Amino acid sequence: MAGATQGALSDRLIGSKIHRDLAERLGVPEEAVVVESDGGRVRLSSVIPITEEQRSGAIGIAAATRGVVSVSADGLIVDQAPHPAE
Description:
Blueprint lengths: L1 H25 L6 E6 L2 E6 L5 H13 L5 E6 L11
Protein name: BON domain-containing protein
């Protein structure tokens, strides 16, 4: 049982670290992206559209996080609306 508790704690820490890094490095609000971790296998999904740059950054941040063994980002919603050139 101790191993299961340790694994759950590690997964929570992984999720917290990824959320913090998404906010600090990409400006993605914590409530915008759902981070689920199970045994170091991370699943990213979003409740609001994010940019392609944020999606790529989120995958990179998650993959580089200590304890992560794989990343799935199929649940991330990317903003497909055309934006005027700046």
